[in-house]
Every structure is written in structure tokens, then in C-alpha cells.
Amino acid sequence: MAIPSEGENIQIHSYKHNGQIHRVWQETIVLKGTKNIVIGANERTLVTESDGRTWLTREPSICYFHAEHWFNIICMLREDGVYYYCNMSSPFVYDNQSLKYIDYDLDVKVFPDMSYTLLDEDEYEAHRKEMGYPEVIDKILYRNLDKLYSWIKQRKGPFAPDFINVWTNRHHFHKQLRFHD
């Protein structure tokens, strides 16, 4: 499998279980790329929805993707703190300058105080029936949801106290490099 290089600009493609494109983020700069982990950053990037609508992200974000866990984590840097949007999803694949995953509807929003809430259970149930998610997917997702909750409570991965500082500093470094090119 190809691995994105640090400093490379990639797209992020989110799909649904039926293979349909869900959402595309036009530009994300790779801060770390290994076979198991991709950490990226974007700021005011163009997002295209499946119906063609577009919008710009509002705040800088650090994005965390893993090739073995069934979730990804978007750390949104706002004035009042870091908010985390966690998508229950397939592990990522990297192909043709694009990081790709299947979005499985369930989301967890984590607030700056590390309280959290599960979102979109109704959407998950509707899509599970409509697209025929196999029972094994259901079990994998709920097992990974428990793992995600554990990470939040233990302040592990992107929830660790120093994660945001390390990766925002790396993002600023890459922005400076581009500014001087």
C-alpha cells in the first residue's frame, strides 16, 4: 500500500457502505504518514457533498486516521477549546493521493471538557437496513465505539494532552515552508 508523505497535499474521500461517495475534502496537508496512521491538517478547505453542494471548513482541524481502528477523529480548534468529531468508519486506505474510508453514520462529539455524546443512531439504523450492513459490521462498530470511549476517558491518541500542540506546531511549520516557497 502506498503511504502519503509528510508535507504532501491529499484529498479525503468519505464513502457510504453502498460505494457511493459521501463527502470530499479538497486539501489536507499530511503531517505524519505511516502504513497505520495518517495525521493531517486542514483549514478553510473546500468540502463537496454527494449532492454537489460545497462549503468551506470554518476552523483549523487536525485529522487522525488509523488503518486498524474503525473510527477517525477530527480535532477542531475553536476559540473556546478543542472539539472532537469522531466518525465510526472503516479503517482508511490510501490510493491515488486520496485517503479513503467508509462512513458508518454513528458519530461521537467530544467537548473541550472531555464530555461526549453519541450522535446519529437513527441514521445508522436507517442505513443499516437500507444498505444491508452485515451483522459482523454492527459488532465491529460497537466494539470500536467502546474502544473510542476508552481512548476518550484515558486521554489516549488525539485526546492526549500534548497531541494538539505537537500537531498544530507541525502544521504551522508546513504553512511557513509553503509561504517561503
UniProtKB/TrEMBL annotation:
Positions of Mg(2+) 1 binding: N87, D103, D107
Protein name: Nucleoside triphosphate/diphosphate phosphatase
UniProt cross-references to InterPro entries, sorted A to Z: DUF402, FomD-like_sf, Ntdp-like, SA1684
Catalytic activities: a ribonucleoside 5'-triphosphate + H2O = a ribonucleoside 5'-diphosphate + phosphate + H(+); a ribonucleoside 5'-diphosphate + H2O = a ribonucleoside 5'-phosphate + phosphate + H(+)
Keyword Metal-binding belongs to the record: yes
Taxonomic path: Bacteria, Bacillati, Bacillota, Bacilli, Lactobacillales
Enzyme Commission number(s): 3.6.1.15, 3.6.1.6
Amino-acid positions noted as binding Mg(2+) 2 in the UniProt annotation, renumbered to this chain: D105, D107, D120, E123
